[in-house]
Design a protein that fits this description.
Elements: H1 10-15, E1 23-28, E2 42-50, E3 56-57, E4 63-64, E5 67-70, E6 81-86, H2 102-105, H3 108-114, E7 127-146, E8 153-170, H4 171-178, H5 181-202
Antiparallel strand pairs: 1-2, 1-6, 2-5, 3-4, 5-8, 6-7, 7-8
Length: 206
Amino acid sequence: SIPSESFLTKKLIEQYDVGVGHDIFVVGRFISREGKTRNIPSVRFGAIAQMPAEPIILDGALAQESYLIEARSIPGYSGSPVFLAIPPAPGPAPRVNPNLPEEIKTHIPELLKMVGYNPKRTTQYQLGPWLLGIDYCHIYDKELVFNSATGDPIPNMHVRSNTGMMGVIPAWRLTDILQGPDIMAIVDDLKTAVERGKKKQDQPKP
């Protein structure tokens, strides 16, 4: 199980400047080699291609707040957890010559960013892994079908092609569900049942 403390939050995203290009890994079952007598998970690796700024809208589905993840995605990984781990920082910012002209000093922050320095990420240890979210869709593209004899496209016909992209529901959407009224009502009922069971155990036996 994955504790809720390991869910990636909007606060952590801002704190560590999480964004496009950060590495992720997906733990799931590769259906071509998933294990016949044992459940053998496989791990795929990729990166954040797009932050959840605009929702993904699939055919006949609702608009869903989503990350776009490049992980050479294939069908069969829906429901798999997607994790983010930030590698150690490259080190403290290099010293800047105070005698540099001001027009050069103004470009120092962007130059440091180009070489991997991030002032928000000063730890020398790996951060995470956090649960980024859950893979819920494989994104296809549509390719025309051509007549092999004439070379012309055939009207109203296409095939699906693999884009390698997956849609991932952010972990905070899971938190909304787990802390929502429907789930909390079930949790409260369970707590009540546990307390009732304890009281029965504490009663003196005849």
